[in-house]
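Escalated from tier 1: 2,5-dideoxy-2,5-imino-D-mannitol holo job.
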Amino acid sequence: SIVSTKYRTAYHFQPPKNWINDPNGPMYYNGIYHQFYQYNPNGSLWGNIVWGHSVSTDLINWIRLEPAIERTTPSDINGCWTGSATILKGGRPVIIYTGADTEKRQVQNIVFPKNVSDPYLKEWIKPDNNPLIQPVGQGLNSDQFRDPTTSWIGPDGLWRIAIGAELNGYSAALLYKSEDFVNWTRVDHPLYSSNASTMWECPDFFAVLPGKNSGLDLSAAIPNGAKHVLKMSLDNCDKYMVGVYDLKSDTFVPDTVLDDRRLWSRIDYGNYYASKSFFDSKRGRRIIWGWTNETDSSSDDVAKGWAGIHAIPRTIWLDSNSKQLLQWPVEEIESLRREEVSHQGLELNQGDLFEIKGIDTLQADVEIDFELTSIDSAGPFDPSWLLDIEKHCREAGASVHGDVGPFGLVVLASDNMEEHTSVYFRVYKSQEKYMILMCSDLRKSSLRPELYTPAYGGFFEFDLEKEKTISLRTLIDRSAVESFGGGGKLCIMARVYPVTVINGGTRMYAFNNGTSTVKVPQLKAWSMRRAQVNVKMG
Ligand code: DQQ
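Tier 2 regenerated the structure:
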């Protein structure tokens, strides 16, 4: 049907059809990037999960291969679930993943490439000694025990791996050790655990430094100034803690522990889950991939014949304050840019809508810098908003007047604005600093029924002395709107299904609805070419 073709993304990762979820085992090996993913070969709802497999030389154009791991043995017959790749010392890659066994217990299995000189590593072999790790031992629950991380070597030369689990009813990243990568024993304490939440899915553990090209291999010596990050997936979003990896106690020690998990930092404040990162040894950066689900109905997904995409791979690094992560689309994405429009020195007064013309508004990359003229009129920040930012977005969108913002972008808008998605900022004063609210408001995104259309939002700090402008970058891709605020301090991924996309002809605007004028020293926008994502050339 017409629906299925128009909402399909042109440069966000997805297979030709069927359901996908979590990114699995991303790695760079011998000149090739590998992306695996949770995949249902039989339909567009979750089930029958195997590992789909695609390869690329640029992270943008992908060649689709046959599934790499299928449900063939007693230890994965009910599902080949999430896992990670590790490059062993001799350079050989391996994958450890969760299998749902004959009893639907969650166990950890290993696979090896059949032929390391096959550039695509098409075939993966399951040794007879699977499962390697079983859900047995103190405090464990056999159906809450999954999603092993990439392995790393500790100071004693032994391999370590962390596994997401429920431990005595709470959440933990369990720690296992091995000398030979085959025999694993549970360490008597977890890498980290928390009684602020239940089971964490898809833990990710990695080291970071400030700077885009300062990615670290988790097994390498930890340089001065490095921090460790533990990412966990829960409450429909990916949260993280920055801290240190204490080698003596072999534990992760967060810099700050917040009892209320609503306050934990997020990788993305929108529709983004089960992310996994890897060290890209080609470019010396760390890259993170996340899954973005559909927000239409299951019957829509059945009608479309596909569901799920991956967000654009993002370079991820540590802010110079060592407190938060920054993310930016990998620069390879810029190779898809074609027509460019640019405007300098715009001024947006209250109520102004500046139409961005001359590009393909369905497939675009937009970068805008906003400069504030009178920050004094910024309203006071209320920390209680942090407990429910989406609620604050809904209220701030309509009823809070007389301050700085909202200003931002309106995308995928119909001629009469009946349908539109807005991505915007508002500025609040908080003692010595400013807090910026960033929202991606989907409430008017479509006239179609049965869609999930929240107003996503998050806050980030803004240092007026250091930063003159607040930047917004948004990647528009038919049913995907992926935004980066403050140079990558805050990301919001979203899915929208405007009727206007089917009919063609959507509009895009920069806008300001705040009372105080904002300047736009620079606005650039590009049409984006269609990438070759898992489809034949032509
Ligand atoms: N998806 C996988 C699990 C994981 C969950 C199953 C997270 O391994 O915990 O498809 O989305």
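The chain has a mean pLDDT of 95.
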